[in-house]
Amino acid sequence: MASELVTREPVRAVQAAALTGHHVEKKRRPVRWRSFLPVYLLMLPGLIYLLVNNYIPMAGIISAFKRININDGIFFSPWAGWDNFRFLFASGAAGEIFRNTLLYNLAFIVVTTTVAIGLAILINDVASTRLRKLYQSSILLPFTLSMVILSYVVFGFLSHENGLLNNTIYADDPIQWYSEGQYWPTILIVVNLWKTVGYSTLLFMAGLIGIDRALYEAASLDGANRWKQVIHIDLPSLVPTIVTLTLLAIGRIFYSDFGLFYQVPRNSGAIYDVTTTIDTYVYRTLISAGGIGQSAAAGFFQAVIGFVLVVTVNAAVRKYQRASALF
C-alpha cells in the first residue's frame, strides 16, 4: 500500500504540473500574439507585395510546358512537353551563352566585392563627415542612373568618330570598339563595377560602422598598425555581409543585366560572341521567331539552377561557418 502511494504521488505531481503548464500556456498565447501585433501589421504590406508580385505569377510556369496559342490562352493551349526547353540546348550557341553568363557573373562578384570592401574601408577612415558623405554620394550616383543613360556615356568614350578615347589616346590609330570583341570583357566588367560598386560599398560601410571602437583602441595599444587592424578586425567583421551578398549573387548567377549586355554594346552583331548571355539570346530569339513558352522555359531553367546553387553554397557555408549561413 505504501509503495502504491509512493508511486502515485510523482504521477499526480506530473499530471498536475502538466495541467498547470497547459493552463498557463493557454493563458499566455493570446498575450504573446497581441504583443507582436504591431510587428505583424508592419509585415503585412511586404507579405502582400510578395504574394502578388512573386508568388501569384509563379502560376505562369505552366507556360514553359505549353505550346501557347493566343486564342486558347495559357491554360487551354496544348502541352508541348520538353520542346520549349530544347530551344536553349538545340542551338549551337548554347555553350557560348552559358559560358558568357557564368563567367561574367563570377567576375562581377569577385571584382565588385573586392573593390567595394576596399572603398568602404578607405571611406570609413575619412575623418571629415562632409568629405565622407561626398565620397558616398559620388560613388552611388552611377547606381541611380538607368543603363540606357550609362550606355550613352560609354558611347561618348568609345565612339569611333567622336569618342573621347579615339580623339585623345588612340588618335593615331582609332579602334573600332563596337566591332572588335577582345575589348568587351574588360569594358563590361568596368561598366558594371562603375554602376554597382557604390551600392555594395554602402552595405559594407554599414557593417564597419557597427564594429565596437574599443577593438581598435585595444589593437592600437597592442601596437597594431592600420593594416593589421584591417586584417584582424575589419575583414573578419565583414565576413557575414560578404557571405550573404555572395550567396544572393550566386542565386542569380545564371541571370544577367539585360541593359548591360544589350544597351551598352548597342546590340552590335560583330561582338555577339562575347556579349550574348541567356537573357539577350532569349530576347533576340523571341523578337525574331516569337514564343512565350520558350522564354518561360528559359526563365524556369534559370530559376531552378539559381535555387540549386543557393542551396548548395548555403549548405557548404553552414558546414564551415554556421553563423554566416542564410538558413
TrEMBL record:
GO terms for biological process: transmembrane transport. Its main location: membrane. One of its GO terms (cellular component) is plasma membrane. Residues 98-313 form the ABC transmembrane type-1 domain. The chain crosses the membrane at residues 36-56, 102-127, 139-158, 197-216, 237-255, 296-317. It is found in: Cell membrane. Keywords: Cell membrane, Membrane, Transmembrane, Transmembrane helix, Transport. Pfam families: BPD_transp_1. It is a multi-pass membrane protein. Belongs to the binding-protein-dependent transport system permease family. InterPro entries: MetI-like (IPR000515), MetI-like_sf (IPR035906), UgpAE/MalFG_permease (IPR050809). This is ABC transporter permease subunit.
